[in-house]
Structure formats: C-alpha cells, structure tokens
Amino acid sequence: MYLFTPRFILADDPLSVKISENGWAWLVCGEKLIVWKIGQMPISKFSVCKEFQLPPCDLPYVADLVALSHPDEYSSLQSVSVMAASRQGVICYWPNMTHEESCTEIALDFGNDWKCLTAVSGGGFILASQKNQLLRLTPDGSGKVSFRPVQQGQGMLSGLGRRVSSLFGILTPAADVVLSSVLWDVENECFYTLTNSSLNKWEVDETSERHIFSWDLNRSMKGDLGDSIWGDDENYEATKSTINMKYLDLQLSKEGLVILTAAWSHADSPCLIYYILTTLQDKGCHISDEIRVEVTEYCPPYQTEELPCQRFLIPDFASPAAYLYTYDLVFACCTGTGRASLPQEKLILNMPGDGILGAGSFTGLPVLFCRNSGLVVARPKESVSMLPENIEDSLALAASESDARQPFERAEMEAQEDKTKMLKTAFVMYCRKDIIGAQNMLEEIFPDSFDTGPDSDLDMAVAQISLDLINDYPACDPRWAESVPSDLSSFSNTSLLLLHQLEDKMKAHYCLMEFLRDVELLSRLETVLVRGIPMATRLLLCEHAEKLSAAIVLKNHHTKLPEVVNAAINCALSKRNEGIPQNLTPADIFFREVSQIDTAFDCLLEEEEQFLEENHPHSVEWAQMVISINNILKDMLHAAVHHRHNKSSFYKFQEETEQEPEYIPWTASSGPSGVRCVILRQTDIALNKVYPQVDTNLRNALLEQLVVLIDFYLDGYVCQLKSVDRPSQQERYNKLDLEYTQKRSHLLTQLLSLGQYQLTASLAEKYCDFDILIQLCEQTDNQTRLQRYLNQFADQNFSDFLFRWYMEKGKRGKLLSPPVSQHANLASFLQSHEHLSWLHEINVQNFEKAYRTLLNLANMETRYFAKKKTLLSLSKLSAFASDLPDDHLQEKMEDLTAQERYLLHQETLPMELVNKKQFNIETMPVLTALQLIHLYISDDNIKANEYDFKKALDLLEFVEKEEGLEAPTNIESLKLEIFCQAIQRDNWSFDAKDDPIEAAKETVLIKVIKKLMDEGVQLKYYLPEVKDLLKSEYLVTLRSNSYFEFLLQAIYEHYVKLQS
C-alpha cells in the first residue's frame, strides 16, 4: 500500500498530526494547517494536499481541534469541509477544500480550554472542552456557523461561566470532571465521552442530541481492574487505598467499547504503570455487567503524573489487535476478546530525533506519522518470531553491534566475535521465518567445507550464543533501570517478573535448538572446553537447559522460602565478589546469570549448617530447616535430571560419534563445592545429626528425601560411566566403576543399617547393587525376594554374584542348596570352582562328573598330602557310585590304585624321619617321587632297612612318569645311588677266611637283592654293574678295599646264578 506524504520542512514550532479512518490526514505546524489524502482519491489521478492559514493565537493549535466533514469516502473536494478551533475558542471554517482563502471565523466567549473537535451527522461538529463541556457547531449553506450546548444531564455545561449556564437553566457541574477522550460511532450515530469518572453516551441526528446514559466508571469498573493486577497479593486490602487509576482513551471494536486505563500503586517497589484494555458491551440504554479485562505486558516505570502512553488504536473493527503508542514507542497487543491471544511486541524508534507526532488507522492498519519518516504503516510481522520479545531484542541488538547487516560484503571474517554475532543474526532471521536468509548467511560463515574440530569457531560460537541466552540481561525489565529499596519482602511483582524471564529464556533455548537442527549445524558440533575439560557441545547445550529448569524451580522456592533462599543468594554473590547496584536486588543479579545457578547448592548447605549450629535441636524450626533445604535440593536436581533424560533426543543427531570425551554432568561435579560433595554432606547431616534427634514422622520424611538425593547422586555416576564405556577407555571405566561401586555401597549401607529395607531396595534394585540386595535378603531371611532377584536380574548374572557372595562369606551350605531352578546356574558357576563343584555334582547325583572333578582336584593338589589322599578316595567312591560300564570302571580303578600306591610311599615314611624333618602330618605337602627317594635313602633315615631301599627302588617308576625324563641314564644313576646308599649302611669289614656269601647275608644290600628276587626281578638286567658301583663317588672309601670288590663280585655271581 502506498501512503502519500507531502514534502515539507518541519519547523521548530509544535507539531501534531491526526489521521482519520476515511483516508484523510492533517498536520498542524504553528499557524499552518496542511491537509492531504492518504493514497490517491478515487476521482483523481493525483493525491490531494491543501494548506490553510490559521489566525494568530496565544496558544498553539493542535490536530485534535481539527476535523473534516464529508458525505462519504468518495466525496469530491468541493463536498469536503474543514473546521479548526483554537484552545481559546476561535473557530475557522472552510466550506470546501478547493477554496483555502474562503474562511469563516467566529469566537466563542466561554473562557474554556477546548480539547477536541469531532465531525458528526449532517455536516456538523461537536467541540469538547477539557472540563467535558460540549458545543454543537452547525454550518449553513452560506458558510455561517451557529453553535449551541449539547443537551445533556446535570453538570455537562460546567465551565461555560455562571452567566451562560444560568441562561440555559442548567446547574454548574462539579469542577473536578476532566475529559479524556471522545468517540463518534458513525454507523450507529452515537457520540461518547470518557472522563476521569464516567462514560457518557448521546444519540445524535442532524439537528439534535439525546443523552442516553452516564456510567460511573469508579463504582462499576475500578474494583475489577484492581483485582486483575493486585488481587493475588497478600496485602491487597491494605494496598487498595494506594491504587491510582486514570481512564485515558476510548475506541470501538466488534466486541464493544474498549477503554484504555492506566493503574499504579505507590506501595509497589518499584512502582510500575499497568496498562489495561477493558471491553464493555453497550446494550443501547445501559452498559452490560459483563466486563472483559486484559492487562497488557507494557509496564513502564512510574515517573511523573504525565503518563508516557495516553492513546491507543484499534485499526481493524473486526480484529482484537490493539496498538498503544507514545512519542518513541509502539506496543502491539490485543483486547483479549478474540479466540486466540495475539503475540505482544514492542517497536522502539531508535533513530536520533525521530518521534511519533500522530496516529490513526486506514484500511484496517495502524498508520503512524513519524518526524523523520513521515507516514509509516505498522504492519504485523508476516510470521511472528518464535523468540520472546525481550530476548529477540537483546539478540538483535548484540548482532547489530557488528557489521552483521552486510555479512556478504566482508571477504574474510577471522574474529570469533564477528562469527558469533553473525550467527546470532542468522538465528534471529530464522526465528522470524526468514529461513532462506538464515541459510545464506550460514553458508557464508560456516560453509559445508568448513573444517570443524574440537573447539572450532562453530562450536565456540554456538556455545557462546547459548550462554548469552541463558544469561541474557532483562533489558525490558524496568527494575534494571530503577532503584529498589533494601526491603525485599515487599516485592510481590518482582517474583512474577523474574519467573517469566526464566521461562522466556527456556523458550529461547528451544528455539535455538530447533534452529541448529533445522539448518543442520547440530550434527557438525564437536567439543568445547568446559570447566577446564573437553565436553561435547551438544551436551553443553543440554546443560544450559537443565540449569534453566533448576533456576525456575529455585525461583518458585524463593517465593515460598524467601529468607532461606535470599540468604543463599547473598552467600553466592559474596563468593563471586559480585556487587549489588542500588537499583537491583540480589535475586535480580543471581537469577539473571543462570549459568552460575549451581553455586546455590553449596550456599544452601552453608546456611543450613550455620542455622543448625545456632539453634537448639529441640526447636520446631531446627529439623524443619533441613527438610526445607532437602526439598529445594531435590526439586532442583529433579528438574535438571528430568530434562536431561526426557529431552535427550532433542540434543542428539542420527550419526552419533564415539569420539565424544568423558561426560561429567554439572549435577555430578566434584570438588569441595561440587554437587556430589553437597549431596554427601547433606546425607551426613541428615543421618548423623538430625535423624537421631527427631520423631518418627520427621525421620520418615528425611529418609524419603535422602533416597531422592542419593538417586540423583548415583545417576550422575551412571551418566559418566556410559560416556567412557568403550574399549579405548577401559582402564578409565574400571577406575571410575570402582569409585562408583564404593560410593554406592557406602550410601546404601547407611540406609540398610537403619533397617530401611524398602527404601534401600528401591535404590539397590535401580542401580543393581547386588551386594546390598543379598545383604537385605539375608537380614530379613526373605528367600522369596531373593528368588525374585534371581529371575529379575538373570541377564546380569545375579546368580553368579550370589554364589560368589556365599563363597566369600563362608556360607557354603547355602551355596550348595539353591532352588532346583538354579542348579544349572550353580553348575556353570562352579566350573571355575572345582573344589566345590563336586559337592553340587554329588548333590544332583552326577557321580561320573564328580569322579572326574575329584580326580582332577587330586592331581592338581600339591599343598596338602592328606587332602590329596582324601580327594583320591572320594574320587574312587564316586566312580563306584557312577554308571560307568564295568570295563571302563576297571580301567579307572587301576589308575586310582596306582596313585594310591604312590601315596602309600609317603604315608609309610618312618615316623622318626618325619619328626626329624619337622613335617606335620596334617599339613605335610605332597612330596615328589624324587623327594621321597632321597628321604628314604638319606642319612637322616637312621634306621633305614631293606624295606626303605626297596620303596626307593619302587619309586623309580613314578620318577620316570613324574619328570618325563627322556634319557634312561637318569633313572640308572638314581638306581646306582640307591644301591650305593644301601651298601654304605654296612661297614663290610669281614674276615677274608669266611665264606663271602655267608659273611654278607645280613647286609642291607643282600636283603634288598633277596626282596627283588622274591618279586621276580631279573637281577642280571636290574642290578647296576660292579664297576659302576666301584666308580661311584658314594663308595670312595670302599673302593680301595680289594676284599670289598671281591665280595661284590661273589655276591653278584651267586645270586644271579641262583636265578638262572
């Protein structure tokens, strides 16, 4: 739509403009009146602009005292008349616009301050004064103007002077009536006036007026308006007397008459002006009792009696859209009568020297006349921005500080700050539905070929924008510009505004995430440095939303427990060395910087500890303080963790990478002031300090709260563990898992020790603490619960854990008597515990497997001889009890008998030898065949006889099996040693005259040879050679005795010959 604005130089004189619905506009500048048609007239190719000269006047002319009268929109210039009035009552009338010089002037000697002039039916006009006096001005065909007071109820002619009032016979009205606005309803030919106390209506025809009603605004409407703003305040009754209201303007909509009202209370701190749109239904002779009140979001601070906004527009009769305006601002809102509420938005004229000189409507749109731009149509945005208005303004302002308006003119953008600002600009464009523009800008800043990586420009820019959003300064909040008193308890409206600011930040955060996803930046994000360690950028974005959720919860608790939360806020700000400006509260500062919301945790505990120290344990408030702190902590953590888990998909993209660093949630931060430490400290305070001092009800409340806190504590570890659960970080995973297991056990053991079985079970089941679950079942002797866990956690090897627990605790009876359903699991578990598996095998009558298990155990047993012997015996018994075929059984028995025969050699060691070697019969180790041979033939076996040496010779076969010797000479050398030791047992000092055989028959050697012969051993092949014996180092002393050699030769010859 083209709006014609005449070209003229605006002088220094006061300026005012008015725009009518039928397309005419006029401007008053000093003593000049300029009238023009907006757009082209239907009967002319050219736009019309006329200038009229006004007579000199002491007070400046205003556009409100100018009116145009014309039959209809298509009237020719000849049928359009113009009337202008001065404030002092000088009337100028031009019968038609074609003759600017043809003017009629009259003077009204009523001594009033005239306020506005309105064209009505029949070419007439109504002039209204500041004190609500009305005159009907009627021109005739010759251009002469007559006037008379509008007929009305008592009091409407006040201010005309006693002489004139008396002339009409009407009493003088109250002097405090002040006119605010007038309205002419063309369709119904009704004229309304809005004063400081009433709404009045007349029906007007071409020659007369009839007063219909005067409706008392204060009696009928003031209470409803006050309730809509202050009704929820605790001190509302006391506040009522401090409430001020001013009725400002009147407009017409399809739903009825709409009144703009300003309301404020000096009891508020800060004192804000609330602008209210009230819709009334005119039923003809009266106003309906049904009143619709809409409190707008435009709430400027109260400064002077001269209110910043006193006018508004409803440009489209059928629409609920309304526009409030001041000299430098337009605020779009709605009357609240439509089906859906329209978004409220604010437009500020930022250009130097610009300002709104007047306003009106044309073709259903609001039209403004600005000092710099002329006529401007305030079109609604084609697509309303998704961002809350104050945050969008902040982002747009931040972006505009750079050269972001011409992003494509710069060939290179190396500065990270520039890229961040330009990304903000693209984000705002996206929110305003300019998707193509946003994508083009992003392609320029971060093209697809852009090399991303850890701490890239893209990651840093996204992280910074997200941080700026949650820490955004509430620029539209007047409390950041106005001083506040030190008494925080009176800020009833402060809480509401702070809460809305936090909610707006959350909306903005969601908009940012949709933007990153839709423009495919989310999938390109990698990592940034957070708290000194790398962190996935997407998880940082989630953290920001979690902190916003926690901040909203804390703000709600701030309303319920102001003293507690305020103390913690002051503590946090003190630790940050953050000063509090005179015009802001600590809560304003603290809740503005959402990224630091976690500092509240440690400060809440500090306040709690100080309170417990300073107050008596038996006071009512003592335990209640801990209950309150617990509630705040758990509610904040719940909000954060709930967002993390429920919105996790919002921060993920399809192609997940395994290269993300370890994730430590802010709710699992370590260090003295970290959230983990806070939860542990709070648990210790509650259980060790408060729990013993309180009654059962408070104990139950405390424990239920602690279970929730411990839940969040353990959840943080689970998130951290999941992030390192990959082969490349197995060492880190194992270390962290050990730490987690120890902390979990410590916390749950405390609950278990208090007999809180159900609460303990709830956490142990959720976090799979099998040790605690088993302890719980043991303490309560609840086998049903244990069986449930065996089924519930079957896929997590709960049965193995249970069996191992029984083994470690020495509860082998329970280990070996599980339910039948667990026999298979126990058998599987015992495969790596053969020392117990044979018991289970016997229990289930699997004797063949028990035989094999016992035999394997016996073969591996080297530590205890007695145990080896027992295992072999049990193995033999199991074999007999098994279903082995006879031939197989016989084979097994022969093997077992051979092993028993070997053990018999150790079992029959001479007791003197055993004692001398300091062997304990019960703990004696299993000796090798070589060890046994040396024991039998050693000098320590003082009483060694032929039986001992024969056993030594028998053991040679086991040495061969035991050692696996390949060279037979080793066995022969052992045999040589045994015979040498047998020879040495005698002195061989016989008389040479004696029979050698008879003389040596009592030697150990002869007795050994005889035993060998008794067993059928072929001496010829078994006995060592005489020459080998004589060469042996063991017989050095006998080697020089020639008679000894003779004896050996004779003995060998004799006994070998006996066998032949």
TrEMBL record:
Gene3D superfamilies: 1.20.58.1380, 1.25.40.700, YVTN repeat-like/Quinoprotein amine dehydrogenase. One of its GO terms (biological process) is system development. Residues 735-925 form the Nucleoporin Nup133/Nup155-like C-terminal domain. It is found in: Chromosome, Centromere, Kinetochore; Nucleus, Nuclear pore complex. The keyword Transport applies. Residues 20-357 form the Nucleoporin Nup133/Nup155-like N-terminal domain. GO terms for cellular component: kinetochore; nuclear pore outer ring. GO terms for molecular function: structural constituent of nuclear pore. Keywords: Centromere, Chromosome, Kinetochore, mRNA transport, Nuclear pore complex, Nucleus, Protein transport, Translocation, Transport. InterPro entries: Nucleoporin_Nup133/Nup155_C, Nucleoporin_Nup133/Nup155_N, Nup133-like, WD40/YVTN_repeat-like_dom_sf. Forms part of the Nup160 subcomplex in the nuclear pore which is composed of NUP160, NUP133, NUP107 and Nup96. This complex plays a role in RNA export and in tethering Nup98 and NUP153 to the nucleus. Involved in poly(A)+ RNA transport. Involved in nephrogenesis. PANTHER family: NUCLEAR PORE COMPLEX PROTEIN NUP133 (PTHR13405:SF11). Belongs to the nucleoporin Nup133 family. This is Nuclear pore complex protein Nup133.
